[in-house]
User: What shape does this take?
Amino acid sequence: MPATIVLGTQWGDEGKGKFTDLLAADASMVVRYQGGHNAGHTLVVKGESFALQLVPSGVLYPHTTPVIGNGVVVDPFVLLAEMEMLSSRGVDVSRIRVSGNAHLILPYHQQLDALHERHLGNAKLGTTKRGIGPAYADKSMRLGIRVQDMLDEKIFRAKLHTALGHANKVLTKVFNRLPVDPDQLADRVLTECLPGIQPLIADSINEIHAALEAGENVLFEGAQATFLDLDHGTYPFVTSSNPTAGGACTGAGVGPRHIDRIIGIAKAYVTRVGAGPFPTELFDDDGDKMVDIGREYGTNTGRRRRPGWVDAVMLRHAVRLNSLTELAITKLDVLDTFDTVKICTGYRIDGHEITTLPYHQSQIHKAEPIYEEFAGWNTDLTTVTDVEGLPANARRFLDALAKQAGVPITLVSTGPGRAQYLEYETR
Ligand code: GDP
Ligand code: IMO
Ligand code: MG
Assistant: This one.
């Protein structure tokens, strides 16, 4: 630390929540910088599981301030429901801060997300239907409504009229749906959401910089992942924000020189939810075994995640895009009973072998993985909490992965629980 980014290096669900929660033990602030409630971050503490969508994963500690940064898109109904869920389970939510500059997701964004997906038919992206794309589109169109707009009823109503002036044309003329009444929606948001959210609205930039200037540790928690990044992912099968490290700077309001440590979270294998290319995808028993043992069903939507072997081509690319200082590997225990484990070290495309990610999407669709195989360890790792306890074969796999990626592995997770991890030193 002091300023550390935790982000996903694959297609999401790497275990960002678990490591953010773990590292937040030493942080005074945990800041979400992009995405919205398309995220599902699971924390397991003393056997109790918490699934978070919008609230930063530091919320379980009394000493951290969870901040929803300016780059996040906030559904105020979802935020309140999540706060209620946490309160009912004894978590203090009064310290949560929401940037006044964050944009709102409102019900018409979700309706439009679902309609766009239906309209795309077979070409659909498999979005979470949380309204993420339409809300960021409105932000880019300068039709977005910000959290701070709720503080002035006149401004809020006027902006809703303008935004819905556009959205209603799309709803009625393109999709043949009923229009949304701006004043009815304003009434609902101002009565049902504003009272609960108003006390949290903050000048997040000022608060984050005050913490950094005081030398406190600040964690920036990515949602989604490098290959779901709007610019760097497998477009169009991506989300509508920038989960990569640069997104932490814009989405939280800090310059790159503030960032000291950038931890890329990677599963010991890979999963992907939704459509899009996936060179190491498995359709065999090994894949089913990963899904079964790893319980690879979406935290958020319950969808089965597509499984595959870990891909070092992607990891090397993620190291470059994010300036990763290190990798944290999760779910190593899921591979405990595999006789052979594999790392994809390159691709074969049209008879040529390459070790970097091709920029052209159709090449990625055609890529056949080249694997290096390793003997499995056939040992239960879920109780291993130090590097000496790791079998030699598990170390060989991790060291080869770090060498392929080009950065050290510093942390390894061996189960969902907060205590199930070890500090690692790559040899
Ligand atoms: P995130 O979106 O990156 O925060 O990841 P998710 O929470 O969506 O998905 C990760 C899942 O794996 C959650 O159910 C975690 O509780 C679980 N998990 C995290 N680390 C480990 C691990 O090392 N081993 C196992 N077996 N499960 C893990
Ligand atoms: P966390 O933070 C995995 C995927 C969706 C879809 C694409 C676009 O838990 O890792 P969107 O609703 O964002 O417009 O959907 O991105 N997706 C995720 N996949 N984990 C996530 O978040 C995801 N958030 C979005 O499945 O393919
Ligand atoms: Mg998730």
